Amino acid sequence: MAMKFSTEDFKERIKENIGDDFMRKAVAGAQERLHTRRLDAAEELGNWEEWRSHGEEIRQHVLENLDYYLHQLSENVASRGGHVFFAKTGEEASRYIKEVIQKKEGKKVVKSKSMVTEEIHLNACLEEAGCEVIETDLGEYILQVDDHDPPSHIVAPALHKNKEQIRDVFAQKLDYDRTSKPEELAMHAREMLRKEFLTADIGITGCNFAIAETGSVTLVTNEGNARLVSALPKTQITVMGMERIVPSFEEFEVLVSLLTRSAVGQKLTSYVTALTGPQGEGDVDGPEDFHLVIVDNGRSRILGTEFQSVLQCIRCAACVNVCPVYRHIGGHSYGSIYSGPIGAVLSPLLGGYDDFKELPYASTLCAACTDACPVKIPLHELLHKHRQVIVEKEGRAPVSEKLAMKAFGLGAASNPLYQMGSKVASTVMKPLTKNDRISKGPGPLKAWTELREFPAPEKERFRDWFTHHQKEKGDGKS
Amino acid sequence: MSGTIQNRDAFLANVASSLGRERKQRVERPVWKFQPQHHVLKDASQEELVEVLRSQCRLIHAELIETSLADLPKRLAAAVNLYGGGPLSLWKDERFSGFGLDELIHKQWPAEKKEVNIWDPVLGEKNIELAEKANIGITFSDMTLAESGTVVLFSSPDKGRSVSLLPKQYIAIIPKSTIVPRITQAAEAIRGKIEGGEVVPSCINFITGPSNSADIEMNLVIGVHGPVKAAYILVNDC
């Protein structure tokens, strides 16, 4: 899967998804559950704002000193016998990983969930080279078995599918003959995947946080798949976005506490694993060879700009879980593996405005995302900044906005036109107005009024009211 | 043996230039303005921490069995029977002996025809095979985090990571003296070890209950890739 997975136009994608009742119900339910669990977990701590501020100061410090910490990390990985490869682009990263696998004559690759490997098209690259690549996170596995259906949520990738659909996919592709009960489906995946773990030559993981001081990489899961991926194959390759790093174990524990609470409302997930280098001397399990691939792929272009704070992200998806726009259009509408508010900020930066210029408009700027963010990324402000850039520097505001602005510009620039327009507005809209609200708007208003009402124009123009009011006030005085 | 590092200089020079400065040779870890983590359960007594652990175990679907040191063999034997007996996979760990479990492990279980496999680096790969077919894996907890209900395991040649991972079920023996408020204290202890010149274990696992997933319609399924059940046996060793 590449970062961009759809060639359809943004509006087409929305139209398709907004008609998917199951998906919309599933998303709404998931949002409510995850949202409540996050709030409960935050409330239990009592001083959540202080925790967020601490998360923010750690992430900001790391970004400001990123070269230093990456240097320290690479020294400490190498001193433990691990290999470090710095990759400027996704292609460089994929090529290196492919070469490592070919040198090992690896055929079977098991993977634990990693957004950055999706971003750099790693699976396609390895499959072209003749490897069998198996995703082992249950959600990712379901999507892979279903002919590589794209993920629709950063933390719960198969959120858009119901259990009957999953049963049908398993029946068709895996000769599954049991019911659609989640327990039975999961047990089947366990049985299928256990065999793969035991016979894979290569394990590929993402990295939640790397720890500079010890050269460790850490993996956070509930299923235990990342543990299997890093315990059984002889070669482990960990791929990390270059910003996913903390100074020491002490900052790591703070961020992991923020991550698991914000993502799923858990104090810690079932497994948090810190791996340092390949297996130690005398160890029996764990990889004999360990490679850490540190990926830039556009991130350094964000550093030092007004968008730098987006790199504070710890991929918890709390912003996704509170977004009213995501709730209606679902993850697939974004056309990027990064969906929701964080996706709308990040995708245009990493993938360019050509492909993702609409995403900053998929927001009401209500700021729920900013309030939810455990490391205080001002997401709605960044979305607003994107719009400024799109209009001012890129000169490509959405067509409807351009037209409306042009019309308003014309009307407002000419005194007689403006006078007339504001005078007739109330009369023209009268047939569509009920109780001061318009619920079936014509033309460009239609898209708005399909979802909500529009306030009717005031019967009295402001100018008229003002003149009137001044007069009355004047009268009262005398 | 040291590993290789490729493309570092150009990569980091570019990062520094994006940040608008020369590369930094030295950065002091700051004194953080906010430190909320030190206030959690700050003044809790050991008894209060046990109470926190108890209620957390209910949330994470881990069974908590409390016992005295004297009753530990009996309670462990009963837990193993409840989970369907052997084969068993154990760490090679002096604490089993120190906590009076020699008789159970080396006499009682073999007499009951329960297969007991103790992790032994000499056996190499065979260890993994034995852990994979085990019904229950048993380890001690090196540190126990009350707030989250987490056992912390430090790997070593005698303490394979597979024992808490591959068997169908998992039992952790928790000496009460290992309980600390939260992961903050574990992180400090790990940093303390490093400062004392110790090498960080190749694998540190923070394990909180059995494996689970909510990937299908947000329904919680207990038992996915790791153990499908987990029990903690809390031993009063204080």
UniProtKB/TrEMBL annotation, chain A:
The keyword Repeat applies. It comes from the Bacteria. The keyword Transmembrane does not apply. Keywords: 4Fe-4S, Electron transport, Iron, Iron-sulfur, Metal-binding, Repeat, Transport. PROSITE patterns: 4FE4S_FER_1. Residues 384-470 form the Lactate utilization protein B C-terminal domain. Is involved in L-lactate degradation and allows cells to grow with lactate as the sole carbon source. Has probably a role as an electron transporter during oxidation of L-lactate. Belongs to the LutB/YkgF family. This is Lactate utilization protein B.
From TrEMBL, chain B:
It holds the Pfam family LUD_dom. InterPro entries: FTHF_cligase-like_sf (IPR024185), LUD_dom (IPR003741), LutC (IPR022823), NagB/RpiA_transferase-like (IPR037171). Residues 98-235 form the LUD domain. One of its GO terms (biological process) is lactate metabolic process. Gene3D superfamilies: NagB/RpiA/CoA transferase-like. Belongs to the LutC/YkgG family. Is involved in L-lactate degradation and allows cells to grow with lactate as the sole carbon source. This is Lactate utilization protein C. The gene is lutC.
